[in-house]
Hints:
With about 375 residues, the chain is mainly alpha-helical. About 65% of the residues lie in helices and about 0% in strands. It has 3 domains: about 35 residues; about 60 residues; about 200 residues, MetI-like fold.
Amino acid sequence: MASPSIAYVRTTPAPVLPPPLLTRGLPGWLRANLFSGPWSSLFTILMAIFLAWIVPGIVRYLFIDAVWSAPDGAACRAPGAGACWAYVAQKFSYFMYASYPREQVWRVNLSLVLGAVLVAWLLIPSSRAKGLGSLLFFVVYPVVSFFLLHGLEVAGMPKVETDLWGGVFVSLLVSAVGIVVSLPGGVLLALGRQSQLPFVRIISVVFIEFVRGVPLITVLFMANFMLPLFVPDNWTPDRLLRPLIGVSLFASAYMAEVVRGGLLAMPKGQFEGAMALGLNYWRMMRLIVLPQALTKVIPGIVNTFIGLFKDTTLVAIVGIYDFLRTVDTARLDPTWAGPTISTTGYIFAALFYFIFCFGMSRYSQFMERELSKDRNR
């Protein structure tokens, strides 16, 4: 005789058990990112061995054996001496301002501070009145900063010719002008290349392909030596204005292709929907198409900005004393001559460019995350 079946019904929920130890916390992160499989584990071990071999020497050179304070380069030339940060401290003013008169550097500092405040105003998503901030940054600030840096005799500020400009603030000036001009310039060229008007399309295609087909050095030489040939003698562009124009045109051509990629990625329905609403071409582009297209290509835009920021070092070819040129010139001082001294200067320059480029990269990733929240709602 079969025994009767026994049924059990739980009347209370089962206790919630924590996830396995190897899937949470630090062990879970290590397993997911560094030891997720045999090849991942092998590369992790090899990289750990490599870092253990190279990092102690770098730390010893940059910090432990480094010379932090010295009146000249004698201590940095001693056997076993590491990085000569005393050299950077002694030449820091020259790195920042080059030959700009030292009694007038407050004008450079004020201009940089104003620019930093306006840039922060525009880049912080939670800031308000961005229309006013854009007006101040793109219209008012260039005029104010020019008169601050160049001087205005009626205001009691002596003129400082651009021959004396140089250092960090010139590198920031060239890159900022290139970045600010390249985005709207690239948008116009991209729209021109997509235009239904043959003349506009041909002009845009010829300009983009010509500029992209030559190196930046060629564009700088053409702007420096050929641009004055197309204007009257009394309208000859300033020696600093010429590379600014060359860098802006060069960056605009590359930006045009990035923007065109965003336009081509737009669904056809967006254009049809905008036309169905009765929007004309320019309102359709400004309100519907361009905001979405530019969002799609934020990585490409920032990548172009980063490349432009690093390429500004090439303006030294046409005699502009940018930051890297001042580092290269300062090492010729016999008081600070020495292999570790020169190396320290270039390490300092590398850190400068890395900080700015890394900052732009991280900000672009932040904006991608913020914009993806709106798209995923």
